[in-house]
Structure formats: C-alpha cells, structure tokens
C-alpha cells in the first residue's frame, strides 16, 4: 500500500508539465525606512530543481518618476558584484546566501533620493523561466503616524472612561445598598428583640389608609 | 403632552442628522476646483486620503464621539421615558446630549484654529463646517431641555 502511494506520487511529479516548473521569485511588496537608516531588501526563489552552482541573482533599480532601470547588483559564478559607479556605490552590501536561495542585499545610509522600485531577478539553471519580483522602497524623514491611530485612541479612551464610570456607579450603588441592607437587618433584629420583650404591650392600631380593597 | 414629546424627539433627531451629515458628507472646505474635509481631499483630477496629521485625526475622533453620544442619549431617552418615576428628570439623557454638543463644539473649534494650516488661501469653508456649528447649539438646547423636563403621567 505504502509503496503504491510512493510510486503514484513519484509518477505525479514526473508528469508535471514543464511550464509549472518555472522559477518563482519572492521579494517584499513595499518597504518603509527612515533617512539615514539601513534596510535589507530580501529576495528568495522557489524552484523545482536543486540549487545549481550557476545560480545568479541580479538587482535593478528604477527611481520614482523615471522610466530607466539601472543594474546595481549581480551575483554569478560564486562571486557578488556590487554597484561601484551608480547611486549606491559604497552603500550596497550583499548579505544573502545563494546556497540557501537567498539573494538579499543591504542598503546603507538611505537618502531621500533612494525612493524607487527595486527588482530582483534570480535564475537557477536550467530553471531560468520566471518573472522578476519588485519591491518598492519609501524613505521618510520622520515616521508618519498611521491614519486612524490617534482617532481610534481618542475614541477608545473616552468610551473606556464612560464604561468605567458606569461600572463604578453601579458598584457604589451595590455596595451602598448592601451596607444599608445589613444596617437595616441589624436594626430590624434589635427591634424584633425589643418587640418580643414587649409582647404583653398593646397592639399598634392598624392604619386604615393602608388597607386596600 | 404628546406634542411636546414629539417636538423634543424631533429636535434631537434634527441635531443627530446634522451631526451625521457634517461628519460623513463633510464638505468642510471648498475652492474653485477642490473640496476637502476630515477624511479625503478631492480635486478635479482625483481624491487622495487626508493628511495623517495629529489634529485632523483628533477632529475625526471628536466628531465620531459626538455622534455616538447623541445616539446613546436618544436610546437613553426612550429607556428613561418608560422607567423613570413620575416627576423625575431626564438627567442622564441630558448629560449625554450636552456632552455630544461639547464634542461638536471642540471639533469645530479645533478645525477653525488649525484651518490656516489645512485650508489654502483661496478656499472657503463649506456647508458641512457650517452644519457642524449649527448642530452644536441645537444639541446643547436639546440637552438642556432634557435636564429641565420633568416626567409627567
């Protein structure tokens, strides 16, 4: 039974058509960073083949508002080549691990002009058909407050205070009622004791106005 | 007696509707080609979400809170109508309605004070801004009426 399952699964893997064996590249969608900070742009891929020794990674950069891309990083034949002429010279570092299919780069000391789209393309021969993936970099001078954070905070605090006041009010009423109840019980107890001592005394007249027909 | 009740409810609902319109439709500033409000800035070319500054978010929060409190006071009014003893006053309803009016007032004041920052020179205030300022005295009067009103049989 088990061998039958194993054989069928191997057969399935064998009949998988060539097109679905394209390489799939993953980067982030959008990255936010502060001016002057460093950021790691990650890129990894999925391929049905084993990682070959001729695996290549390449990063290209397209500034915001421009239509040209420039190549800023290339890894091939076991060696990494970083940008030494373009906008990222001396600011780019390869921190990936090609053996583990990781082609991430580190951008240091970000500037406002670094806003743009970074595209990672990886090839794993013979698996070379695939679509490059892009990540958008946004550089801010100071961290912007997300829309709705302060709104939600103010609403939450006021409604929380309201709930708190209601709870405290009912708690006080409950406690005061209990105290009054226990006080009246003790008074009633005292009265009962006095009443039983005065049993021989006159019965108090019934109040006619309280009698209802 | 019924007329009084209907009149009070109508006043309350009018204030509530004004609050809703002012917050949601929110044409707070208008220019030749732009309208902007608490949530979105629209020009003839397109709409972008409003700036995420601290003050505009506080105006949003305060307007939403005023709507919530006004709705709560309406609900409380109906509750108290049936459960209050004879001769009692609608204190809770009035308190909530007065709080709602205070929130609208503070929202409109903050918007007015910060408007040189948000409203470009040529633009003027839109009708939603005016509705917010009208809703404030309506809600205040409604709340005061609740506080003064006594429940009769």
UniProtKB/TrEMBL annotation, chain A:
Region of interest: Disordered: 188-213
Primary location group: membrane
InterPro entries in the record: Ig-like_dom, Ig-like_dom_sf, Ig-like_fold, Ig_sub, Ig_V-set, Myelin_P0-rel
Keywords assigned: Disulfide bond, Glycoprotein, Immunoglobulin domain, Membrane, Signal, Transmembrane, Transmembrane helix
Leader sequence segment: 1-22
Subcellular location(s) per record: Membrane
Pfam families attached to this UniProt entry: V-set
SMART domains: IG, IGv
Residue stretches making up the Ig-like domain: 17-136
Membrane topology of the entry: Single-pass type I membrane protein
GO cellular component: plasma membrane
Coiled coil location: none
Tagged with keyword Zinc: no
Biological processes, Gene Ontology terms: myelination
Taxonomic superkingdom: Eukaryota
Family (UniProt): Belongs to the myelin P0 protein family.
Protein name, entry field: Ig-like domain-containing protein
UniProtKB/TrEMBL annotation, chain B:
Segments traversing the membrane: 59-78, 90-114, 126-149
Major location (coarse): membrane
Keyword hit for Transmembrane helix: yes
Keyword annotations: Membrane, Transmembrane, Transmembrane helix
Gene Ontology cellular-component annotations: plasma membrane
Entry keyword annotation includes Transmembrane: yes
Locations listed in the record: Membrane
Record's bilayer topology term: Multi-pass membrane protein
Top-level taxonomic group: Eukaryota
Family: Belongs to the PMP-22/EMP/MP20 family.
Name of the protein in question: Peripheral myelin protein 22
Native organism: Astatotilapia calliptera
């Amino acid at each position: 039974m088990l061998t039958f399952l194993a054989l069928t699964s191997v057969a399935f893997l064998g009949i998988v058509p060539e097109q679905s064996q394209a390489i799939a590249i993953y980067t982030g969608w959008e990255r936010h960073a502060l001016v002057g900070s460093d950021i790691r742009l990650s890129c990894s891929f999925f391929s049905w083949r084993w990682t070959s020794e001729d695996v290549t990674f390449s990063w290209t950069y397209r500034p915001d508002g421009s239509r040209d891309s420039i190549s800023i990083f290339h890894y091939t034949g076991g060696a990494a080549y970083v940008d030494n002429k373009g906008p990222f010279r001396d600011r780019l570092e390869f921190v990936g691990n090609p053996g583990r299919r990781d082609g991430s780069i580190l951008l240091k000391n970000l500037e406002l002009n670094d806003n743009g789209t970074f595209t990672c393309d990886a090839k794993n021969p013979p698996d070379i058909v695939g679509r490059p993936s892009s990540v958008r970099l946004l550089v801010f001078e100071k961290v912007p407050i997300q829309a709705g954070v302060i709104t939600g905070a103010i609403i939450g605090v006021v409604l929380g205070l309201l709930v708190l006041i209601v709870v405290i009010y009912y708690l006080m009423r409950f406690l005061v009622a209990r105290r009054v109840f226990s006080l009246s019980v003790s008074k009633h107890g005292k009265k009962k004791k006095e009443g039983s001592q005065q049993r021989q005394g006159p019965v108090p007249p019934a109040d006619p106005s309280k009698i209802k027909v | 007696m019924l007329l009084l009740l209907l009149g009070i409810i109508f006043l309350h609902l009018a204030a509530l509707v004004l609050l809703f319109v002012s917050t949601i439709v929110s044409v707070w500033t208008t220019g030749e080609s732009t309208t902007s409000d608490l949530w979105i800035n629209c020009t003839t070319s397109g709409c972008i979400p409003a700036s995420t500054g601290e003050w505009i978010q506080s105006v949003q929060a305060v307007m939403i809170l005023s709507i919530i409190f006004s709705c709560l006071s309406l609900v409380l009014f109906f509750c108290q109508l049936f459960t209050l003893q004879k001769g009692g006053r609608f204190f809770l309803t009035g308190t909530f309605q007065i709080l709602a009016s205070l929130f609208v007032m503070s929202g409109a004041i903050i918007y007015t004070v910060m408007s040189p920052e948000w409203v470009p020179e040529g633009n003027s205030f839109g009708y939603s801004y005016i509705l917010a300022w009208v809703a404030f005295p309506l809600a205040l009067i409604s709340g005061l009426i609740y506080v003064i009103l006594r429940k009769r049989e």
